[in-house]
């Protein structure tokens, strides 16, 4: 598992290279927005669409039937990515990288069919799915494992960076703090409290991964 540290470094490097960030970052955005969508469906809400952008920002258009549902759906995005980051590294640690590859491919396919409707998001998913299917067709198992390692590290690193960014925005410009600002509107709890919670969650998931899995 020690080799994963190299992938984590590569994922961290990609944050500061615009082309790489636009190319690989949307996998984290997809997980985040699917967190909102899945929470909405579990709570008997509706999912209208998901948009993915080259800036690695995204938005899920959902509808909830109650105040508590709205709170939970809004809260779900960052929480879901933290949980998925742990889940990904756990599957890798028990030798189920190929299963994880197909799970990510399946999520991308479902999202394209059901939810993602903006041009950039659809193009990105077409390319992602097409690339994955080529690896499956040519049975390039070692490359599939490399893809899983790198994407799992992308999800972890971007989750931590995004939650830290939201926390910083919640302190200086709450109206740019995304989910934290929305949760403040719903609960009257200050946005920086939600931003801090998101950041602590991501740090907690990182600690679990480094302490107990890698």
Helix content: over 70%
Question: Strand order of the main beta sheet, please?
Answer: 1-2
Number of helical stretches of at least 4 residues: 9
Q: What is the CA-based Rg, rounded? A: 17 Å
| Span of the ends, CA to CA | 6 Å
Please provide the count of β strands: 2
InterPro entries: Peptidase_M50B-like
Keywords: Membrane, Transmembrane, Transmembrane helix
Protein name: M50 family peptidase
Pfam family, one: Peptidase_M50B
Which helices and strands appear, and what pairs or packs with what?
Layout: H1 4-14, H2 18-24, H3 26-42, E1 46-52, E2 58-63, H4 67-93, H5 97-114, H6 119-137, H7 141-172, H8 179-187, H9 191-213
Antiparallel strand pairs: 1-2
Word description of this protein:
InterPro entries: Peptidase_M50B-like. This is M50 family peptidase. It is a single chain. The chain has helices at 4-14, 18-24, 26-42, 67-93, 97-114, 119-137, 141-172, 179-187, 191-213; strands at residues 46-52, 58-63. It is built from nine helices and two strands; from the N terminus they run H-H-H-E-E-H-H-H-H-H-H. Helix 4 (67-93) runs antiparallel to helix 7 (141-172), helix 4 (67-93) runs antiparallel to helix 8 and helix 4 (67-93) packs parallel to helix 9. The chain has one domain. By secondary structure, the protein is mostly helical. 76% of the residues lie in helices and 6% in strands. The relative contact order is 0.15. A hairpin with a 5-residue loop joins strand 1 (46-52) and strand 2.
Task: List its traits.
two-stranded antiparallel sheet; transmembrane; 214 residues; Peptidase_M50B-like; mainly alpha; 2 strands; membrane; transmembrane helix; globular; M50 family peptidase; 76% helix
């Amino acid at each position: 598992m020690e080799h994963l540290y190299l992938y984590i470094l590569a994922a961290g490097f990609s944050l500061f290279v615009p082309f790489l960030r636009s190319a690989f970052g949307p996998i984290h955005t997809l997980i985040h927005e699917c967190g909102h969508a899945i929470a909405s469906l579990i709570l008997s809400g509706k999912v209208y669409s998901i948009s993915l952008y080259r800036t690695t920002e995204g938005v899920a258009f959902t509808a909830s039937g109650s105040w508590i549902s709205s709170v939970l759906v809004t809260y779900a995005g960052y929480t879901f990515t933290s949980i998925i980051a742990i889940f990904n590294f756990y599957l890798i640690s028990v030798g189920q990288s190929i299963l994880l590859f197909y799970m990510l491919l399946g999520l991308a396919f479902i999202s394209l069919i059901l939810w993602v409707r903006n041009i950039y998001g659809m193009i990105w998913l077409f390319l992602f799915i097409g690339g994955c299917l080529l690896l499956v067709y040519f049975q390039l198992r070692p490359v599939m494992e490399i893809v899983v390692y790198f994407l799992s590290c992308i999800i972890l690193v971007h989750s931590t960076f995004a939650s830290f960014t939201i926390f910083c925005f919640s302190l200086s410009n709450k109206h740019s703090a995304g989910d934290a600002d929305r949760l403040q509107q719903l609960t009257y709890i200050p946005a920086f409290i939600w931003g801090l919670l998101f950041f602590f969650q991501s740090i907690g998931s990182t600690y679990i991964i480094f302490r107990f899995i890698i």
